[in-house]
Write a structure and sequence with these properties.
Structural class: mainly beta
Shape: globular
Strand content: over 45%
Number of helices: 3
CATH topology: Maltoporin, Chain A
Distance between the termini: 125 Å
Number of strands: 26
Largest sheet: 22 strands, antiparallel, barrel
Helix content: under 10%
CATH superfamily: TonB-dependent receptor, beta-barrel domain
Length: 554
């Protein structure tokens, strides 16, 4: 039955064709929608299976034919031409030319000559040596005051010899500074220049030995022998010799450091003389791990003045922690120490000291400090420090009752609170600027005021380069009011009282023009605000100082 269905279908084809195309009359069947609704009956078509039976005889097989290969050597024709490869070069890695000598010379207002000459050996692996001479002086006048002329002379000879395991260096320095006691007003011709002249000379030298061994498991050492002699034209002299030795070694992830020194000297003034010495030991243990570092140790000092000895012990702890790598660091320190006071150090702070200056060492019984350094931006860095210390024999300069005015030193107990802050900005070598602030508060025992120490200091400095030829520098300094002593004589009765000296601002500007690598010209102006201020009682400053000159390398 299944095979007869196509046959019946063929028999019906003629009748269907006749009903649609036969006759001459065409009937319009019209449009009619027919919806057929019935159940869906899925039907699976027959599959044509692949014949898995082999059609040929597989009981025999043919042997694989042997294939022979041969290679014919022929040179390949290549027209490629090689070119040399340029080595990688860092821009600033070129060895710069060094010059043996340097000269800076100029002349300025208030009859101010300047000469700075240095001569050095050039680049060498075996030694380094040189000599330098510098002179700067003024001989101008200040209205209604004595002759204020002064001069500074400096000569420095130095040399270092490098060996495989250590280096040996030595230097010899001579300084001669001259000032005049011009702290008097009526009349300015009351004293001659020779009567007010105060010349101070000091000679110092040292020999140093330091190891250069980079092996961490071996001792690293350094030692030095130094001396100085200070004297003036008012019967004051001071001799001092210092021997120091130190070493460090890595021990079980900690570095042990020991420094020891002994200094011995004699001081002579017009009214007295005495011997003094200080022997110091400073052991340390340094532990560094990842972002944390700590130093633990002590400062030990044995002080002797004219055979009167005193032994002092101070703890020492210093810690640093890098909170954010290369961005934020905090640090703290607990310590104490013995500070040596002498005529040479005082002369560099105030050269107008008299013929009799008492000398005592400052005992910092306890000191605490802490702070942080923060990199605010890539080119911006902030640093803040807080210091607190308990001091015995803290020196304060005090003016004497004499004409012309001279100074001595008064020692007092004090507690110091010091705040420091700085903000620095540097963009490559073209522009740089910085601002610093300092607050000093001495809570003294007997003195009512901290003599000649400003409570507040502000400093600003900047540097700007134009087209690698012109360099502009600007500085600004502000010091708050300071306090001195004023004496009054009535009927041969002398009384004293505190004298307030107004604060001052000092602005400076300088321009350097570099004509070539060896030749340049400069102009500098100091105190461009024309302010006359008093750093010391009865010692006013110049209102304006200017200097111009050239520099030359050869």
């Amino acid at each position: 039955m299944k095979n007869n269905i196509p046959f019946y279908f063929l028999l019906l084809l003629p009748s269907i064709a006749a009903s649609q195309g036969g006759g001459t009359k065409t009937n319009n069947l019209g449009n009619e929608d027919i919806n057929v609704v019935k159940e869906y009956q899925p039907v699976l078509n027959d599959a044509f299976k692949i014949n898995i039976y082999p059609e040929s005889d597989t009981s025999t097989f043919r042997d694989k034919q042997s294939l022979n290969y041969s290679l014919e050597a022929r040179p390949m024709n290549s027209n490629y031409n090689t070119s040399p490869i340029k080595p990688v070069r860092i821009k600033d890695d070129a060895i710069k030319k060094l010059y043996h000598g340097f000269v800076k010379a100029g002349y300025g207002l208030e009859n101010m000559p300047l000469l700075d000459v240095s001569f050095n050996s050039i680049r060498s692996k075996n030694f380094d040596a040189g000599v330098r001479y510098k002179h700067l002086s003024t001989s101008g006048k200040i209205k209604d005051y004595g002759f204020p002329g002064n001069s500074n002379n400096h000569i420095d000879l130095f040399g270092t010899r490098y060996f495989e395991k250590f280096k040996l260096g030595a230097d010899l320095i001579y300084n001669r500074n001259v000032v005049h006691f011009y702290g008097f007003k009526t009349p300015p011709e009351l004293f001659s220049k020779s009567e007010t002249k105060h010349s101070m000379s000091d000679v110092e030298g040292s020999v140093k030995l330091q190891s250069l061994d980079v092996d961490k498991d071996k001792w690293r050492y350094q030692s030095a022998l130094s001396f100085y002699n200070f004297s003036d034209n008012r019967k004051a002299s001071e001799n001092n010799a210092v021997f120091s030795i130190g070493g460090s070694k890595l021990m079980n992830n900690a570095t042990f450091i020991l420094n020891a020194s002994g200094e011995f000297g004699k001081i002579e003034q017009e009214s007295f003389s005495f011997n003094r010495s200080i022997i110091r030991f400073r052991p340390r243990f340094n532990i560094t791990q990842d972002l944390f570092s700590i130093d633990i140790g002590a400062n030990l000092a044995l002080e002797s003045n004219n055979n009167n000895s005193d032994y002092r012990f101070y703890p020492y702890v210093k810690a640093e922690y890098q909170v954010i790598n290369d961005a934020v660091k905090i640090f703290a320190e607990l310590s104490g120490d013995l500070q040596r006071n002498d005529l040479r150090s005082f002369s560099r702070q105030n050269p107008f000291f008299g013929s009799s200056v008492p000398l005592a060492n400052t005992n910092q019984r306890l000191g605490l400090s802490g702070g942080a350094s923060i990199k605010l931006e890539h080119d911006l860095m902030f640093t803040g420090i807080v210091n607190w210390a308990r001091l015995k024999n803290q020196p304060f300069f005090i003016n004497n009752f004499e004409i012309p005015t001279s100074f001595s030193v008064y020692y007092d107990k004090a507690t110091l609170l010091q705040l420091k802050g700085s903000l620095e900005y540097k963009q490559s070598e073209k522009i740089a600027a910085g601002i610093s602030v300092e607050h000093n508060n001495y809570n003294t025992d007997k003195l009512k005021e901290q003599l000649y120490i400003p409570a507040f200091r502000l400093g600003f400095n900047s540097h700007y380069a134009i087209a690698e030829k012109i360099f502009i520098k600007a500085d600004l300094f502000y010091n708050s009011n300071i306090t001195g002593i004023e004496y009054t004589s009535v009927n041969s009765v002398v009384t004293s009282d505190y004298k307030n000296l107004k604060g001052w601002m000092d602005a400076n500007i300088g321009i350097d023009y570099r004509y070539s690598k060896v030749l340049s010209a400069f102009v500098s102006l100091n105190n461009i605000g024309f302010a006359q201020y008093f750093r010391w009682y009865q010692y006013p400053s110049y209102r304006l100082l200017g200097l111009a000159g050239i520099t030359y390398s050869f």
